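Table 4 source record.
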Amino acid sequence: MIQSKIAHRRLLSDGRQVLVWLTCFKKKYVFTACGVGSPGDFGSALRQDTKSTRRALEARFTGSRFEEVFVGDESAAVISVYRALTAAGSRDGVFFLCNHLAVQAAVLSALGARVPS
């Protein structure tokens, strides 16, 4: 079972949230976050909330490894989360870059994360 609780939360000026999760999986804790974008998007091409979330995650994780995982569609969310968390060490960081909002919702569901309103 995968469970996540909020490790960091901040509201942006446009009302979007920056959320970093502390995810428990197989008796280890991994810092996780996700945002919307495409591989190869840099700078102004990435949404502001995605850039802010990635920076917040990079500042939080205390392990030795940071990984970015692209999730292209909803059907890949569960296996992508499982594989990334299996490969991660305790206190590592994993950022899930999602192709669109529905994929992000599927990743958050697979992480057992409940987004506060």
